[in-house]
Design brief:
heterodimer, A: alpha/beta, 6-stranded mixed β-sheet, B: 378 residues, alpha+beta, 12-stranded mixed β-sheet, elongated
Chain lengths: 238, 378
């Protein structure tokens, strides 16, 4: 069992609807979800079950219609929108399905974006991002532009971008969906070795069952609700 | 983040050059049309500005612009001289006799007769010869553009003879007179001889040129002359403004240029605005990612404004360069001499382009502000 203070993400009774009247769609229908420090939590389920909406709510990118979200004990709803942005900038790292790298920037500059957004000067930020890229085996491609990188390499740059400012929560949206099996496996290995940290939680949305073995905990979603959560046996044994 | 904004801007070369072209073309058109308009309007008063020896012009009370003269009586000159504050007052004749060369080429002219004894009103900018040579009998000074019209392709040469109303006049100087509104040759002669060139009429005194005594303001002197003589008296600049005002009110020139200037602005707003808007739309995903990562709206607005301002500034610089080159070439042409690009027009167009940049920024900023950062997950 995990102790209560190890909770990184806590969602209680989250509901989220889009539209009104006859066109109203309930995407999340009373979600209770937790993610813990030092763990990689997978959020899995069929397309359209609400996984992406849930991580948008967790990240503070969408406001829930009902319910309470706490990240490291802080309720996002009680923050001003500016404080939410600053909180997100400091504490969250993102890995997107389509990488979302800026094509005009080199790999190192892309990875440095969170530091630049926080006001770190360019040379310091790029130096730091190069160190992370080196750890991810991308040192030789640090000065390449995204168009010259393979999908797997681009996702590593995206991972470096998610890690560079040492956030306490990393949210990954289908990080292997655009990759072949080998590249996907490689990216997940890097995620498991580089991102997971005793003081950090990683939440991964995926429906790629080939990488489920990387999870410490798997939460299954269906039709806007969480059906069940299963723990990795090795974690249970511990 | 500024370098990210600039990299995003220039990385899509096609759109970047499209934006610069739109801003440059709009700038060029605005500078070009406003400068030509101002140049043409200034020509309506150019003969007034060329006279540097007088502060006040006295004329018939119903005169509205320089070309429209109703002769004064010779006694009016004496009355003006009697007004307190007048240092000196001299006659000026203006007529339009036809000049004919020995070879047979002819043209209507713009002939100005200056005071015989003082030569006040004679051209001071000379291309060849001296204006003082007007004191010689049967002498005239012809402007350079008139010379080119009457003696096409021939080098400037003094001593040539022109026939004006059966009177032979010898060329003693070639002036650099400012271009008049109509493209007639400008001839300067002494008053007494200019009357013969025109043909005798009862009254021929077009204007009285007045210099104010030291310490007397031309404006006050003009009002004193009007009060004392019931004639119309205008300072040089007042008279120039009268002429410009007359042409603005009574010709289609402002409407014509106004339409072109409006089109240039529309091109700037529509083409640059649309291109920049499309550029922003193409980059929405990137802005969304930055938003999700934690870049504030105000910082994103700053990035968009920086992109628009950079493209606008580079376009403005190119457009100004093209306009400067255009006017450098055109100012050397006889027909378009005197039409130049002034800093005032540059300043006006810079202000207009700033408004265009703000407009294109605002329509793009709106899309960036309302963009949901959650869209990056879709």
């Amino acid at each position: 069992m995990t102790s209560p203070d190890s909770t990184a993400v806590s969602c209680h009774g989250i509901r989220k609807s889009f539209g009104t009247g006859d066109t109203k769609i309930d995407v999340l229908r009373g979600i209770h979800f937790e993610a813990h420090r030092g763990e990689m939590t997978f959020l899995v389920g069929p397309s359209g079950c609400g996984k992406t909406t849930l991580i948008s709510v967790i990240a503070g990118l969408l406001d829930p219609s009902e319910g309470k979200v706490s990240i490291f004990g802080q309720q996002l709803a009680k923050m001003t929108s500016r404080d939410q942005i600053l909180f997100r900038r400091k504490n969250l790292g993102f890995v997107f399905q389509q990488y979302n790298l800026l094509p005009a920037l080199t790999a190192a500059e892309n990875a440095a974006v969170p530091l630049l957004a926080a006001g770190v000067n360019r040379s310091t930020a790029v130096k730091r991002s190069k160190e992370i890229l080196d750890r991810l085996g991308m040192a030789s491609r640090a000065d390449n532009y995204p168009r010259t990188l393979s999908g797997g390499q681009q996702q590593r740059v995206a991972l470096a971008r998610a890690l560079v400012h040492e956030p306490r929560l990393i949210i990954c949206d289908e990080p292997t969906a655009a990759l072949d099996h080998k590249s996907g496996e490689s990216v997940m290995e890097l995620l498991a070795t580089s991102a997971v940290h005793p003081d950090r939680a990683v939440v991964v949305v995926t429906h790629d069952n080939r990488v489920f073995h990387f999870a410490d905990r798997i939460t299954h979603m269906e039709d806007g609700i969480i059906t069940h959560t299963e723990q990795n046996p090795k974690l249970q044994a511990a | 983040m500024n370098f990210i904004a600039l990299r995003m801007l220039i990385s899509d070369r096609a759109k970047y050059f499209g934006l610069i072209f739109a801003f440059a073309f709009s700038t060029f058109l605005l500078l070009n049309q406003i400068s030509i308009f101002c140049g043409i309007m200034q020509r309506t008063g150019s003969q007034i500005l060329d006279v540097t020896d007088a502060d006040v012009w006295v004329m018939d009370p119903y005169t509205e612009y320089f070309e429209q003269t109703k002769a004064l009586k010779d006694t009016d000159l004496t009355r003006v001289r009697g007004v307190q504050g007048v240092d000196y007052a001299v006659r000026l004749f203006k007529g339009n006799p036809i000049a004919r060369t020995i070879e047979g080429k002819f043209a209507s002219t713009f002939t100005i007769g200056v005071d015989d004894s003082t030569l006040i009103g004679a051209p001071r900018k000379m291309a060849l010869g001296r204006w003082e040579n007007l004191r010689e009998a049967n002498s005239i000074i012809l402007d350079r553009a008139g010379y080119a019209l009457l003696y096409p392709g021939q080098p400037l040469e003094l001593g040539r003879v022109l026939e004006l109303n059966d009177h032979k006049a010898r060329l003693v100087g070639i002036s650099d007179a400012s271009a008049p509104f109509v493209s007639f040759p400008v001839i300067h002669a002494r008053y007494s001889e200019a009357l013969h060139f025109q043909g005798q009429q009862r009254n021929q005194l077009g204007y009285v040129l007045v210099r104010a005594k030291p310490g007397i303001s031309p404006e006050n002197l003009a009002r004193s002359i009007e009060a004392a003589t019931a004639l119309k008296a205008r300072t040089t600049m007042e008279f120039v403004r009268d002429c410009i005002g007359y042409y603005l009110r009574n010709t289609g020139i402002p409407v014509n240029f106004g339409i072109t200037i409006a089109i240039a602005l529309v091109v700037g707003l529509a083409v640059a605005g649309q291109t920049f808007f499309l550029f922003t739309l193409d980059n929405l995903k990137q802005f969304g990612a930055l938003k999700a990562i934690g870049v504030t709206n105000s910082r994103l607005v700053g990035m968009v404004v920086l992109q628009a301002a950079t493209a606008g500034f580079v376009g403005f610089a190119f457009g100004s360069g093209m306009a400067a080159l255009f006017f450098e070439v055109m100012s050397k042409q006889m027909a378009t001499r005197g039409i130049i690009l002034t800093w005032q027009v540059e300043a006006i167009v810079a202000a207009l382009m700033t408004a265009v940049i703000l407009f294109v920024s605002v329509i793009s900023i709106r899309r960036v502000i309302v963009l949901e950062p959650a869209s990056v997950f879709r």
